[in-house]
Amino acid sequence: MLQVEDLDFGVDNLSYAKEPQSNRYIVTRNKQFIARVNYFDDDAERVNSVELFDGFGNLYRVDFYDFRGFKSLSQWYTPDNKIGTEIWSDVDGRPVIETYNRYDGNKKFGKTGWRLNADNGAVYMFSNIDDLTLHFYDELNAKYWSDEKENIFIVDRTHLADWHLLHLKRPAYKVMHLHNSHAGDAQDPMHSVMNNFYEYPLTHANDYNAIISATKKQSADVRRRFKPKSRLFTIPVGVVPDAVFKQPQVPMSDRTPGKVLVTARIDPEKGIDRIIEAIGIAQKDVPNISLYVYGYIDHRNNDEAITKINKAIKKYHLENKVNIKEYVADVGAVQRKAQIYALASVMEGFNLSLMEATSNGMFGVTYDVNYGPNELVVDGENGYIVPFNDTEMMAKKFVELFNNPDLLQEMSTKSYELSERYFEKNVWKAWKRLLTDANKPVEYVPEITHGIGDQRKK
């Protein structure tokens, strides 16, 4: 563990002035400013970064340290206080990647190149980050190359590797993984503008060997809209562990009566304020109804999410019925005490929280939203799917369920049963179908490498 006293500034007789409110030390020598040392916000005060200053008080370099204690990045500053050169180092302090920022002919400041210092001593120069990234994937593909079967590349956030995987030197089995709605408007999957994360790969969908969606509905929509030649696979992105499956079922009578649960990021697109409205409408007929929300608060857009939530609480006088809690590690323990899981999102890619809730005997009351909730919940069996944005109908379902203990238990039992769809063995079966498709003979003609090296006359 690296602390401020372990740093070597090349001079002695240093003084360290701690500024705890800023999580840093000011380092001086005979009143001359040497450095600012910023530390991680923990009791150990591990070094986070070091800002170094010259004899005139000018910042000339900032070193960033990995949590494990080694310097991972150095940024060298220009006289006009811009980052001129950046150097990334490995755990042994060896410079591996460098990038340079300079003014061009139009006096525009930006990156002009990248340098890679390879393990074998070779030095590679690239004009942009895309060429460097492509080189990385080519090296990775070559390192694990086999003449019997292709390497499998599964790209999730496709904007980080979409172009690169389609320009590899050697063949590879390339998979596009749709972890969210492919449409900007999830309720109009056939005509909406595309989700910007997937616009490039879906435009080039036929250059991929396979496309993975988490739900059958999304796989069908992708097939209907884009008509890709690549294989489509439906593989859930969540798994119910065997340990959860083996736990005893908790009957509804042993749970908190009237308790509705949400475990999610507190974000406007999660529609938690709409759930609160449904609670407010239902409370007249279900006096003991309550809502517990566990999750981080997203503070974007001037706290839009929590502002809407507080407004809904105030409108329906739910100060004693709605409870906003912080993130908890043992979500299962919370789910085994609640009865209904509510969901009113604008869009989803699957919704792991709903899957986890149903595996713990809760059942869902959800908007008919793409994708995931309207497949995790089988309408009328392990919950209800209400029309999108229909808060009144959600409230009616709360009333119907909480006033019918037998129906509550029936749906809870069915939730346990339907969770089998996401048991480890069943999800693994879906993955094996893709792996079988990928296990094909390799057709590859390598580049000429013999006879073109040293052509000097002997």
TrEMBL record:
<feature type="domain" description="Glycosyl transferase family 1">
    <location>
        <begin position="252"/>
        <end position="416"/>
    </location>
</feature>
<protein>
    <submittedName>
        <fullName>Glycosyltransferase</fullName>
    </submittedName>
</protein>
<dbReference type="InterPro" id="IPR001296">
    <property type="entry name" value="Glyco_trans_1"/>
</dbReference>
<keyword id="KW-0328">Glycosyltransferase</keyword>
<keyword id="KW-0808">Transferase</keyword>
<dbReference type="Pfam" id="PF00534">
    <property type="entry name" value="Glycos_transf_1"/>
</dbReference>
<dbReference type="GO" id="GO:0016757">
    <property type="term" value="F:glycosyltransferase activity"/>
</dbReference>
